[in-house]
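A favour, since you know our structure tokens better than I do. Could you add the entry underneath, on a fresh line?
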Amino acid sequence: MKIILNNIKTEINNTTTLLELVSIYQKETFGLAIAVNDVVIPKEKWSIFKIKNYDNVVLFQAIAGG
């Protein structure tokens, strides 16, 4: 399956969840946020959210401020 991960075309397993993707590409989850097709996915849904072909996934560090 083909996706765009942080603006880079990438091939992944067809059954990959967001949590599996994080374990492959990002070791630390503290402060990590994920957006799929410009929608931030809550951390509690990462283990069940399946990535689809041609999804645009962005892994980024969430920053608090005000």
Remarks:
- The chain has one domain: 2-61.
- The two ends are 39 Å apart (CA to CA).
